[in-house]
Amino acid sequence: xxxxxxxxxVARYAGYCYGVERALRITEExxxxxxxxxxxxxxxxxxxxxxxxxxxRGVKVVASAxxxxxxxxxxxxxxxxxxxxxxxxxxxxxxxxxxxPFVAVAQRKAASLREAGYAVVIxxxxxxxxxxxxxxxxxxxxxxxxxxxxxxxxxxxxxRVGVVVQTTQTRANLASVAAALVPVARELxxxxxxxxxxxxxxxxxxxxxxEVDVVVVVGGRNSANTARLAQLCRAIESRTHHIESAxxxxxxxxxxxxxxxxxxxxxxxxxxxxxxxxxxxALCGG
Length: 286
Ligand code: SF4
Description:
The protein is an alpha/beta fold. It folds into 3 domains: 2-16 and 197-285, Cobalt-precorrin-4 Transmethylase, domain 1, CATH 3.40.1010; 18-99, Rossmann fold; 102-190, 4-hydroxy-3-methylbut-2-enyl diphosphate reductase, catalytic domain (Cobalt-precorrin-4 Transmethylase, domain 1, 3-Layer(aba) Sandwich). 43% of the residues lie in helices and 20% in strands. It contains 11 helices and 13 strands. It has helices at 18-33, 48-56, 65-68, 82-89, 101-115, 129-138, 153-156, 171-181, 196-211, 224-236, 270-285; strands at 2-3, 6-10, 38-41, 59-62, 72-75, 94-97, 119-123, 143-145, 160-165, 187-190, 214-218, 240-243, 259-264. A hairpin with a 2-residue loop joins strand 1 (2-3) and strand 2. Helix 5 (101-115) runs parallel beside helix 6 (129-138) and helix 9 (196-211) runs parallel beside helix 10. The longest helix is centred in the N-terminal third of the chain and has 16 residues, at 18-33. Iron/sulfur cluster (SF4) binds at residues 17-20, 77, 100, 102-103, 167-168, 195, 197-198, 225, 266.
């Protein structure tokens, strides 16, 4: 696409992934089938405008099953700890599970490591809901680290160590954690639970960042995979801007540029990507 002398290039893989599309479809079906109130345990996906539109249609975001009390309760894409699901099953709530199947794989791997007696290391963001869910499956004693520097090596020395990864991490981060554990662990079992959609979006974003003068990353600021795209792009092209909506674009970011790259997180709808491209065309072509 062109806007005057400026070319606008959208990444090969950008926007909604399989897990997000599936969760939104499940939510639509739950809304149609529900006879009482509908709530989600935390936001269904990490995109404030999509979640806001669902709220307008009656999907209330709650922090616990107790807050929902009656009706239908949807488990978010990022999953929840098993005890939360077990607790909800003892109520009158109708439980609908929208956990992404890739997240569910990571949860099962975490549980299998615990059952097999491994010291479990979870590579991910400490405060992210997906990681909180993984911790629940990995059980007490699991260690959450954000990178190799955070590994408690003395505590893990001589042990059988098992690793699972938040689905939106980078391969490079996983590789450095595995490399740091090799000289320490008696036995090391690493499950690469990074999802396919994440890997495709990350490599497409890196290719794009290498070819343009400025990168715009569209998506929720609370979206881990969007933030990671911005981080990866910024390492290649320092003129990288993470926005939630086209209204945030500033003309000054594009002074003197010839090529603008646009990418978007896995929870960003197509219309937000299209609105960003349209706004860029207006800024640069007008
Ligand atoms: S980014 Fe991957 S793990 Fe997350 S919802 Fe999408 S497909 Fe599932």
